[in-house]
Amino acid sequence: MRSGKPLVLVVDDESHIVHVIQLKLENAGFDVVTARDGEEALALATSARPDVVITDMQMPYIDGQELCKRLEADTTTRGIPAIIITAHGFALTDVDRELTSIQAVVNKPFSPRELVTNVQAMIAGKTVAAGANTGDNNA
Amino acid sequence: MTTTHSQLELGAPSHRLHERLASVGLGVASVRADGVVTYLTAPGPLEQMLCRSPAFTHAVAQQFGELASAIGTPCAIWPGVWLTRLSPPLWHRPDQVSAAELAVCMLCGPELLVSDQFRLACDTAGVDHKALVAQIDPNALLMPHQVHQLAATIGWLSEDDGQLERRNEELAQMTAELGESYEELNLLYRFSSSGTVDQSPDTFLEHACEELCQVAGLTWMALRLINDDPRLSHLAGRLITCGPTQTDDRTLKQLIDLVWRKHHDVEATVFVNSAEVGVPGIETVANELLVVKLAIDDKPLGLLVGGDKIDGSHITTVDTKLCSSLAHTLAMFLSNMMLYEDVQAMFVGSLQALTSAIDAKDSYTHGHSGRVAALSRSLATSAGLDDALVERIYIAGLVHDIGKIGVPESVLQKPGRLTAEEFDQIKQHPEIGARILRDIRQMQDIIPAVLFHHERWDGKGYPYGLGADDIPLFGRVICLADSFDAMCSTRTYRAAMDQDQVRKEIRSCAGSHFDPDLVEPFLRMDFGPYHQLNERRFKIDHVQERGRSNVNSTS
What we know:
The structure holds 2 protein chains of 2 kinds. By secondary structure, chain A is of the alpha/beta class. Helix content of chain A is 45%, strand content 19%. Chain A has helices at 15-27, 38-48, 64-73, 94-99, 112-133, and strands spanning 7-11, 31-35, 52-56, 82-86, 102-107. In chain A, α2 packs parallel to α3. Chain A is globular and about 35 Å long. By secondary structure, chain B is α+β, with helices and mostly antiparallel strands. Chain B has 3 domains: 3-168, no CATH class; 194-338, Beta-Lactamase (2-Layer Sandwich), CATH 3.30.450; 361-554, Hypothetical protein af1432, CATH 1.10.3210.10. In chain B, 54% of the residues lie in helices and 11% in strands. Chain B is rod-shaped and about 145 Å long. Chains A and B meet through α1, β2, α2 and α5 of A and α8 of B.
């Protein structure tokens, strides 16, 4: 059941990071589902259809970048804006931009407050974009 | 797979335990010291009957002490009725219970149904004993050894549950604190690494103030800088604020100055009650006040003041440490800025002295270098060059004629036309200048300006006869400024031209003498700084003239 609040999927194999992000997002009025690795995240994204995905870059099995590629390749999860969190520095390439919906890369240690602001902007942007689709295509 | 089953929930687990026990027919009740039993989950008919019985209540009251003392051991109330306590005790949950109450499970065996106590209770309550017994499933009743096993199991479960709940509370608290730590770390990293050239000092300080205010969770924050150090230049005496300060900047400035006067020896202090600060009116801006000094090597640079936590809590030592740490970073930033100002002022001052020495060789070119520097700076600004380049062009303007040091005064000051030989000597000054500067690492970007300021757009200049874009930009800029000042000045061989004439001349030389793309920006630029220097020149000339005539008249 969706509560009507925006839903964010948080993916990280480090549970303390997940907990911090979850707490901050919930305090900011979001619903949060979490996953510990890319596999779990894929299944959860398909069933829960989050509005935004926040994922760690370095994870066992499927890393954050691969997760975003697979989300984009699946029609049910295509276009969900994603934020990558990384401890090793990561720059978006044109290929990433084409094959994923990664909209931001956040380096650790990150500011949870700014992350929440980022998510809010993405949700707001999405609403605007959805409205704009009916009119001019200003993308 | 999904979170709800695989991860700890942060909700109240004991509530979940009650539901789970109820789902297998083990209702949970709360018991008061006076023996009253109230069911927290739906009671069965037996339990309902017992709870209504005053005799049962009395028996429970008598056993309450024993019941409270042990978890995992059933406490027999009547034949075939036991209560077993759950952990943790309910009085740890102030939202549910006020007085001493215990959470218990009631366990019943077949003995109960045939006991005198139970029959009597039914009679007292006017309940048909037979009909009630008929409702009971005999399989749901427990043998005494089962009661002991179950009580022990429930005891462990509830103890584990209590642990789980405590851990979850701890986790939630640590998560919140970890989140705060991330925030603080991030703030400190950012400001300790970014106090550099990529932003103006104003933006840097405003930004730092704002971020700190938010991370520390303060209602407002203000940074007051000292006003008695010229090296702070336009920042001296500034008040930077963020958040609702409850008053206007002027009043706040006065209040902070008073705080400073009273507490100039503080490092970082929290005044839990702002009245303790001893500054009348300070309580109107905040109830609780954080005061942190910005200082380097005991030299105070400013005062950072924050008011009231947004969430109404008290300002903690963590907040204080965070603010002191950032205050230290800001102080270092300001101190670096002041050192830079020092070095810069020393550098420019030395260059000005040096160029005055050159200009002094030729009374007709008095102040020329300073004026060319000012003109070049205005032109660079007008042409849209970035600030760093504009400053370098100013330096280039100052030193462009430094090579004249190697040209004999007799040639420089010769009235009337120069011979071809003399002119050749003059034409060497760009190269002499370039050689003088060659070994100064910090002047490498200036050398092209010195070397090429007599090249012409049409290739007819000297020393190399370069043309158009082959002439470095600095050279083209200084060339235009230099020519303009020369035309506006009296020379040994001609009088000064008036400004309109000069402007016409400049325009007509666009594309021949001058870079045509610089002429338009030049003609529309701000000549204010140049005119100011000129007025100074005329005053000085006038004084010198008078001095000279005085000398003449007395001699």
